[in-house]
Design a protein that fits this description.
It comes from Luteolibacter arcticus. With 549 residues, this protein is an alpha+beta fold. 50% of the residues lie in helices and 15% in strands.
Length: 549
């Protein structure tokens, strides 16, 4: 039986089946994105931290806006070409639409990549510093402050990748692996680093286990760590645990039977406190377990762990997989090779909360006494230049009946940072034709890829671990704004990819449908075009609220 209204529209609605379906689908999409936009507004209004304003590069977002608008136009032209039975023009316009989707996702990929390589750090006094981390020097390599490491001086992980200077350095004398939870990649990294440091990781004591009752397996003290050894110990441990569990279950079942016989008529809950496994009766059949495996590190060696992978103490540490370390915590500073932004807005907010009102003098004092300025001469000089420029800007705006923004007063962006690093205090001067702080001129390439660190001048900084309150790349973990940014733009990107795949299918696989029933293909392209217009419309809302506001 043929399904009606696939090509010809219904007389009462004037719509064919797929057009009704796409409108119903788009209605659900409106509710989805409407919920996102509403949540964004409420979260921004109620944020307990300074909401990032105009932090995203405008040019890539603006280009993407026009790219999507152009693609919405070309998809209409593609549909019109089908209606006029002009297959060649349809191919051209649809190809342009698909190419526009590639351009959009390419620019979005560049933007994401920049965020994933840009580091942010909040100190314990709520000052924020941003920039790019340096690399961890190899053990025994010492460099002067700000000195560029050579490739052969940079520490590498077990996969040969450079290690950023944001690691916990722990000098380890003993490592105990959780038998069933150890992470193989971390074991490999420990073995590789020990070999590089000419250290050995050996079994700390003799282990006598069994793979089945009466079948002993011995692991001698001094056996070197490797994955096969851990796998063999794990196998024996799991066999013992299964055996012992079975024995305890049988013993408990037997004890329950005895309890019921001795106390007829009583309920189970009345007997439960006195029913226990008879450990003495099954002791001879229990097999030895090894929940943790201890290894000695000779000589004690410094291992490097990412902060999120270890919970460290002065003499002990625990990895996320349960691996326990014994030794001592070494200095583990975060090293910024380039500091391209300072932000004291969060600190200012905390001072205001503490004082109970906006006290400019208290805020200025707190900023001047912050660790970033008190312990770093370069940053203190930059802030002094910022204050001079702020005074000029305040005077200039006062003549216009205006005042500086919070961003003007408490944040130094990368363009201002580069300007101050290349300008003496006496020469700091705002541009009287602009209502803004002085800035270095930005190159077109930097709009897309961020500041050019090879030609720009930025200060260097090492932050002791005890000053780090929270650190992250510009990822969802950094704050609510970036969590929303990646969620909404990521979901929108998936819609772009899905829509582009459907339109590409019509372009490359629609010829047979066109030859059989061109009107059917035209209807499908129209439905795909409606979805594409919706994708464009969502971006028209996303662009201003994320990039401009």
């Amino acid at each position: 039986m043929e399904i009606p209204y696939i090509v010809t529209p219904r007389k009462d609605t004037g719509l064919f089946n797929s057009k009704i379906a796409i409108w119903l689908f788009l209605a659900s999409e409106v509710m989805l994105f409407g919920g996102f936009f509403s949540a964004y507004i409420f979260l921004r209004l109620g944020a307990d931290f300074p909401w990032p304003e105009r932090t995203l590069p405008v040019l890539p977002g603006l280009i993407n806006t026009f790219v999507l608008i152009a693609s919405s136009v070309t998809v209409v032209f593609a549909w019109a070409s089908l209606k006029m039975r002009q297959w060649g023009k349809f191919q051209m316009y649809m190809a342009i639409t698909v190419i526009c989707s590639f351009i959009f996702m390419g620019l979005k990929g560049i933007e994401y990549n920049v965020k994933f390589h840009h580091q942010a750090l909040r100190t314990k006094d709520y000052s924020v510093v941003e920039g790019h981390l340096g690399y961890q020097p190899k053990d025994g390599v010492h460099v002067h402050h700000g000195e560029e490491l050579k490739d052969e001086q940079i520490a590498l992980d077990h996969k040969g990748k450079k290690i950023e200077q944001n690691v916990i350095n722990f000098e380890t004398s003993q490592i105990s692996f959780n038998t069933v939870r150890y992470h193989k990649a971390w074991v490999e990294a420990i073995m590789a680093h020990a070999a590089e440091a000419n250290a050995s990781v050996e079994l700390a004591s003799k282990l006598e286990l069994q793979t089945s009752r009466g079948t002993p397996v011995v692991f001698e003290k001094g056996t070197k760590l490797d994955l096969k050894l851990l796998a063999d110990i794990t196998k024996a441990h799991l066999a013992a645990r299964a055996n012992n569990s079975e024995l305890r279950i049988d013993s408990l079942r037997h004890e329950w039977d005895k309890a019921h016989e001795a106390n007829p008529g009583k309920k189970g809950w009345e007997l439960s406190q006195n029913v226990k496994v008879d450990e003495a009766a099954i002791a001879k059949d229990l097999m030895p377990e090894a929940a943790a495996i201890a290894f000695e590190v000779k000589p004690p060696t410094a291992f490097h762990f990412r902060p999120r992978d270890i919970q460290e103490g002065a003499e002990a540490g625990t990895l996320r997989d349960g691996t326990a370390l014994v030794g001592k915590l070494l200095e583990s500073p975060m090293g910024f090779h380039y500091v391209d932004a300072l932000d004291f807005r969060h600190l200012a907010m905390k001072v205001t909360e503490k004082v109970g009102r906006h006290d400019e003098a208290a805020i200025e004092k707190a900023i001047e006494e912050s660790w970033l300025l008190k312990e770093n001469k370069e940053l203190a000089e930059v802030w002094e230049k910022q204050q001079k420029a702020l005074g000029q800007l305040t005077e200039f705006l006062a003549s216009k009946g205006k005042v500086p923004t919070e961003k003007d007063k408490y944040r130094i962006g990368w363009q201002e940072m580069d300007y101050y690093m290349n300008t003496s205090l006496a020469d700091v001067q705002i541009d009287p034709s602009k209502y803004a702080m002085p800035k270095s001129k930005e190159a077109l390439k930097e709009e897309f890829f961020g500041p050019d660190y090879k030609t720009r001048k930025f200060p260097h900084l090492e932050v002791p671990r005890d000053q780090v309150l929270f650190a992250s790349k510009f990822e969802p973990a950094w704050n609510t704004y970036y969590a929303i940014y990646f969620t909404m733009t990521g979901l929108h990107g998936l819609h772009v990819i899905g829509g582009a795949l459907v339109l590409a299918y019509y372009l490359f696989c629609g010829k047979s449908m066109y030859l059989t029933n061109p009107e059917w293909l035209a209807n499908r392209v129209e439905v795909g075009g409606l979805f594409w217009h919706f994708v464009d419309l969502v971006w028209i809302f996303l662009f201003p609220i994320l990039y401009l506001m």
